[in-house]
Amino acid sequence: MRAILSSLVLLLPFLSQPAAAQDASAGERSFAKCRACHQIGEGARNLVGPELNGLIGRHSGAVEGYSYSAANKNSGLTWDEATFAEYIKDPRTKIPGTKMIFAGIKSEKEIKDLTAFLKQFDKDGKKS
Predict the structure, then answer these.
(1) For the chain, how many structural domains are there in total?
(2) Would you say the C-alpha torsion 79, 65, 113, 117 has a positive or negative sign?
(3) How many Å apart are CA 73 and CA 18, to the nearest integer?
(4) Each residue of 1-35: pLDDT tens digit?
(5) Cα separations (Å) of 45 from 51, 57, 60, 82?
(6) Can you tell me the distance from the alpha carbon of 32 to that of 20, in angstroms, rounded to the nearest whole number?
(7) Would 11 be classed as within a structural domain?
(8) Which domain holds residue 23?
(9) Which of 1, 23, 80, 114 is least surrounded, with the fewest CB atoms within 10 Å of its CB?
Protein backbone atom coordinates (compact mmCIF):
# COMPACT_ATOMS: atom_id res chain seq x y z
CA MET A 1 0.00 0.00 0.00
CA ARG A 2 2.83 2.36 0.87
CA ALA A 3 4.38 1.83 -2.61
CA ILE A 4 1.08 2.69 -4.30
CA LEU A 5 0.72 5.88 -2.26
CA SER A 6 4.30 6.86 -3.03
CA SER A 7 3.64 6.38 -6.75
CA LEU A 8 0.47 8.46 -6.59
CA VAL A 9 2.28 11.28 -4.80
CA LEU A 10 4.88 11.32 -7.58
CA LEU A 11 2.15 11.46 -10.24
CA LEU A 12 0.06 14.24 -8.67
CA PRO A 13 1.94 17.14 -10.28
CA PHE A 14 1.36 15.60 -13.71
CA LEU A 15 -2.30 14.82 -13.08
CA SER A 16 -3.06 18.38 -12.06
CA GLN A 17 -1.50 19.89 -15.21
CA PRO A 18 -4.08 21.10 -17.76
CA ALA A 19 -3.84 19.84 -21.31
CA ALA A 20 -1.58 22.00 -23.45
CA ALA A 21 -3.54 25.08 -24.42
CA GLN A 22 -3.57 26.49 -27.90
CA ASP A 23 -1.09 29.32 -28.31
CA ALA A 24 -2.13 31.79 -31.03
CA SER A 25 1.22 33.61 -30.77
CA ALA A 26 3.09 30.39 -31.51
CA GLY A 27 0.55 29.76 -34.29
CA GLU A 28 1.38 33.12 -35.83
CA ARG A 29 5.04 32.10 -35.97
CA SER A 30 4.01 28.79 -37.54
CA PHE A 31 1.96 30.70 -40.14
CA ALA A 32 5.30 31.86 -41.59
CA LYS A 33 5.34 28.46 -43.34
CA CYS A 34 2.03 29.36 -45.03
CA ARG A 35 2.74 33.02 -45.82
CA ALA A 36 4.41 32.40 -49.19
CA CYS A 37 1.08 31.14 -50.57
CA HIS A 38 -1.67 32.45 -48.25
CA GLN A 39 -2.70 35.74 -46.66
CA ILE A 40 -4.92 36.39 -43.67
CA GLY A 41 -6.27 39.53 -42.05
CA GLU A 42 -7.88 42.70 -43.32
CA GLY A 43 -7.00 43.28 -46.95
CA ALA A 44 -5.90 39.66 -47.49
CA ARG A 45 -6.06 38.50 -51.07
CA ASN A 46 -5.63 35.27 -52.96
CA LEU A 47 -2.08 34.41 -53.94
CA VAL A 48 -0.88 30.97 -55.02
CA GLY A 49 -3.40 29.75 -52.44
CA PRO A 50 -6.68 31.31 -51.26
CA GLU A 51 -6.85 33.87 -48.46
CA LEU A 52 -7.63 32.18 -45.15
CA ASN A 53 -10.03 34.59 -43.45
CA GLY A 54 -12.89 32.77 -41.76
CA LEU A 55 -11.38 29.38 -42.59
CA ILE A 56 -12.93 27.47 -39.69
CA GLY A 57 -16.57 26.89 -40.61
CA ARG A 58 -16.05 27.57 -44.31
CA HIS A 59 -16.73 25.02 -47.06
CA SER A 60 -13.73 23.82 -49.05
CA GLY A 61 -13.36 25.53 -52.41
CA ALA A 62 -15.51 28.50 -51.43
CA VAL A 63 -13.26 31.58 -51.61
CA GLU A 64 -14.52 33.81 -54.38
CA GLY A 65 -12.03 34.53 -57.12
CA TYR A 66 -9.69 31.64 -56.34
CA SER A 67 -9.20 28.89 -58.93
CA TYR A 68 -9.44 25.67 -56.92
CA SER A 69 -8.68 22.17 -58.14
CA ALA A 70 -11.72 20.04 -58.92
CA ALA A 71 -10.65 17.76 -56.06
CA ASN A 72 -10.84 20.62 -53.57
CA LYS A 73 -14.11 22.06 -54.90
CA ASN A 74 -15.76 18.64 -54.91
CA SER A 75 -14.35 17.37 -51.59
CA GLY A 76 -17.50 18.31 -49.66
CA LEU A 77 -15.38 19.32 -46.66
CA THR A 78 -16.28 21.96 -44.14
CA TRP A 79 -13.22 23.22 -42.34
CA ASP A 80 -13.46 22.53 -38.64
CA GLU A 81 -10.54 22.00 -36.29
CA ALA A 82 -10.37 18.22 -36.78
CA THR A 83 -10.65 18.40 -40.58
CA PHE A 84 -8.02 21.13 -40.79
CA ALA A 85 -5.68 19.13 -38.50
CA GLU A 86 -5.97 16.08 -40.77
CA TYR A 87 -5.47 18.20 -43.88
CA ILE A 88 -2.47 20.21 -42.71
CA LYS A 89 -0.63 17.02 -41.69
CA ASP A 90 -0.66 15.83 -45.30
CA PRO A 91 -2.82 17.82 -47.74
CA ARG A 92 -2.48 15.39 -50.65
CA THR A 93 -3.63 12.45 -48.53
CA LYS A 94 -6.70 14.29 -47.21
CA ILE A 95 -7.67 15.70 -50.63
CA PRO A 96 -6.02 13.67 -53.40
CA GLY A 97 -5.63 15.93 -56.43
CA THR A 98 -5.34 19.18 -54.45
CA LYS A 99 -3.07 21.86 -55.94
CA MET A 100 -1.54 22.50 -52.53
CA ILE A 101 2.08 21.42 -52.55
CA PHE A 102 3.09 21.35 -48.90
CA ALA A 103 4.92 18.66 -46.93
CA GLY A 104 2.60 19.18 -43.97
CA ILE A 105 2.94 19.91 -40.27
CA LYS A 106 3.31 16.78 -38.18
CA SER A 107 3.40 18.25 -34.65
CA GLU A 108 -0.02 18.11 -32.94
CA LYS A 109 0.92 21.10 -30.76
CA GLU A 110 1.99 23.19 -33.75
CA ILE A 111 -1.25 22.33 -35.57
CA LYS A 112 -3.30 23.38 -32.53
CA ASP A 113 -1.37 26.62 -32.25
CA LEU A 114 -1.75 27.36 -35.96
CA THR A 115 -5.48 26.64 -35.69
CA ALA A 116 -5.76 29.05 -32.74
CA PHE A 117 -4.08 31.75 -34.85
CA LEU A 118 -6.35 31.16 -37.86
CA LYS A 119 -9.52 31.11 -35.72
CA GLN A 120 -8.90 34.69 -34.64
CA PHE A 121 -9.86 36.03 -38.08
CA ASP A 122 -13.48 36.32 -39.22
CA LYS A 123 -14.52 36.14 -42.86
CA ASP A 124 -13.69 39.85 -43.30
CA GLY A 125 -10.22 39.46 -41.79
CA LYS A 126 -11.12 41.22 -38.56
CA LYS A 127 -9.27 39.81 -35.58
CA SER A 128 -11.45 38.91 -32.62
Answers:
(1) 1
(2) negative
(3) 38
(4) 554 444 434 444 444 444 457 899 999 999 999 99
(5) 5, 19, 17, 25
(6) 22
(7) no
(8) 19-119
(9) 1
